[in-house]
Prior knowledge:
By secondary structure, the protein is mainly β. The protein has one domain (12-206): Lipocalin (Beta Barrel). It contains 1 helix and 13 strands; from the N terminus they run ββββββββαβββββ. The chain has one helix at 100-106; strands at 12-15, 18-21, 40-44, 50-57, 61-68, 71-76, 85-91, 95-96, 119-130, 133-142, 145-160, 169-180, 196-206. It has an 8-stranded antiparallel beta barrel with strand order 3-6-7-9-10-11-12-13. A two-stranded antiparallel ribbon has the order 1-2. A hairpin with a 2-residue loop joins strand 1 (12-15) and strand 2 (18-21). The protein is globular.
Amino acid sequence: MRKFLIPATALFALAGGTLAIAQMPTSAPGSKDPAKVTGGNYTIEPGHTQILFAYDHMGFSNNIGIIARPSGTLTIDLKNPSADKVSVTVPVANLTTGIPALDQHLAKPEFFDAAKFPTATFVSTAVKVEGTSAEIAGNLTIKGITKPVTLDAEFYGAGKGPPQMGGKENVGFVATGSIKRSDFGMGYGVPVVGDAIELKIVAAFNK
């Protein structure tokens, strides 16, 4: 899947009828320097974390969707990276393709059955770190069905956020992987509509 770069928007506030532009840093506070990563416990920053999925539609197109604002935790152990852990809860109701009718279809029982199973989860079981990359094995649960899944993660950046954002330590990763939707009780339309789902997770964490 292609990498996407989403530019940050300007922060602003309305006060007394006057538009005030918040003072932004003169350079990006985040860096691809892994030395800026500190160990400890982090939580997902939901405003900048997204799960993207893509699938083949009848051999005509590679359609995509996004699930935004997940919650979860990350533990980083710099002395023993194999002890790193990540846990994510995904609100299925936040799924959007940009096409309302398709969003409603994907929420039905033949797909996510969102009314009965409002969340999906991923919990890591093993982490293998090599440089700035990691292989994350874990259990993915969708519609009450749990299957093992492996994600390939790449360190994206770390550093302290600007004071306007609370000055917290941040770390970000991009992870990719693939699953078969039929493994999770969502085999409707296979093989006319592709079974394989490509995943890309853009994950931001605050300490």
